[in-house]
Amino acid sequence: MPNRTINFFPRRAGRMMIGRPACGRTETFPTSPDGKVFTLSEYATGQSTEIPDAWGKPIEFYEGVVGTLDKLILVALDKVTAAASAQQ
Question: Would you say 54 and 62 are in contact if contact means Cβ atoms under 8 Å apart?
Fold first, then answer.
């Protein structure tokens, strides 16, 4: 996997979910349309699969998590694009 450079300083996160993001998510976002609040894995695959926490793990573990996120993000983006196209 090629090295990536990520600069976190130009932007500040509005709200970050750390740890078990599924816990309390509907309480955090009670006004979401139709109560549709999903984790990334739920939205992308339809299954609630926990993405492991790479904090303090070896670089190979981080790379594995990045690979998982890359796959899930691409699937989720495809779903968003398809849904947007269907609404037009």
Answer: yes
What are the φ and ψ backbone dihedral angles of 58, each rounded to 5 degrees? -65, 160
pLDDT in tens, 55-88: 899 999 999 999 999 999 999 999 989 988 888 7
Block residue for tokens 């599924």: 22
Distance CA 21, CA 34 (A): 19
Residues with Cβ within 8 Å of residue 42, at least 6 apart in sequence: 48
* Distance between CA atoms of residues 12 and 2, nearest Å: 26
The structure tokens listed for 35 are 């109560």
**Do 1 and 67 contact (CB within 8 A), yes or no?**
yes
* 20 vs 27, more confident: 27
For residue 4, what is the enclosing H or E element? none
